[in-house]
Each structure stands twice: as structure tokens, then as C-alpha cells.
Amino acid sequence: MSSTKKKKIEPLTGEDLVRKVKELGNLSKEEKARACGYYTVTKNGIERVNMMKFLNALIDAEGIELDGKQSANGRGGRSASYRISVQSNGNLLIGAAYTKQMDLKPGDEFEISLGRKHIHLKQVDVDEREEVA
């Protein structure tokens, strides 16, 4: 580590993690883990790579279930990580894993309330939609 202090990045998860690992190409596993934020710095300033956390996050991001659990429909797929990132175009994408878990259908509507650092979604009932229309 150089004499300038590096700012530790938050470990990447989900699609961001998979994308970054692919971008890093031929680097070693340890270098990829470090670049994705899976390391700690000891009191003596020594970086330690957290390979288990990195590999587990990568397994989760790829939707691989090692526990023998299957999703509700019996097929594989991504599991919900309960974390999302703002995309480069400024959008937040809530994935299908969440909508399936909530049994939502195309056309279901929500009211959005914004807090200081949170978003609250309240599903609009069919009766409320008809009153507004």
C-alpha cells in the first residue's frame, strides 16, 4: 500500500459485482476481490482480502443456491439480495425476484413516498384506482 491513504470502497454486490469481475479479466482471484471492496485493513495498515465473503457474494450474485433451496416456482434464478444500486442513468431497478416474492402482476400500481434516505412504496388497491379514474 502506498503512503497516500486509500479510501476503502463499499463491497460490490449483485449485478455490479458480476460486471466488475468480468471487467477485471485476467487478474487473480485475490486482486479481483480487493478491487471489488472485499478486504479489510488491519491496525498496522496491512490489507487482508476477505476471499470467503467475496466468493459468497459472487455465488449469490449469480443466483446459485448451494443450500438446496429452490425458488417458489421450482426453477433457479437470482435470489433477492435486498440491495440495489442507482444505475448510470439515475434509475433504480427493483428486480423480478422481489416482484415474484410479493406476487405482483404487470399493471400493479404503487404510491411512492420519499424520505430523507428511504423510499416507501404503498400498493394502490383496485378500488382506489377506480375512484381516481
From TrEMBL:
GO terms for molecular function: DNA-binding transcription repressor activity; transcription cis-regulatory region binding. It comes from the Bacteria. It holds the Pfam family AbrB-like. The keyword Cell membrane does not apply. Coiled coil: none annotated. GO terms for cellular component: protein-DNA complex. Residues 81-126 form the SpoVT-AbrB domain. InterPro entries: AbrB-like, SpoVT-AbrB_dom. Keywords: DNA-binding. PANTHER family: SLL0359 PROTEIN. This is AbrB family transcriptional regulator.
